[in-house]
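step: validate -> pass
step: tokenize input -> pass
step: predict -> running
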Amino acid sequence: MIDFAGMSSADFLMALRRGTACMWSLEAAVWLLERTGVWLEDARLRQYVVGGIGDEDEVWAGFEVPGLQAGIEAGELGEHGEELVVLCFALSLYGNFPISLRYDCWGLSEEVVQLMGKALLIANGYAERD
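step: predict -> pass
step: emit ->
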């Protein structure tokens, strides 16, 4: 089993990129987490990551969404706030993780809302990651 907790943030990001390559919505979720700059450093998130070794001996990673959802609901990733909403929005791009844009996104900073909007464009193939 791969120890994601011991990886540098840069290596962790690269593993997530490998695990989501060529899937726009998953790439968008990782892009958003990178741009907001919070969760890739947070050890609490890494316990919900699964991965493996690819054909070229490179580590890939992805989120174990049902476990992560249970962790969020149990409060293991902190209280409801901007950082947690960003994670939930990213997970909604990632897979079956419904959120209420009206209630969850109310009061977010303009910067975060703009990043979320760009992530949505990326997820639908209308924008490139930068």
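step: describe -> The chain has a mean pLDDT of 93.
step: cleanup -> pass
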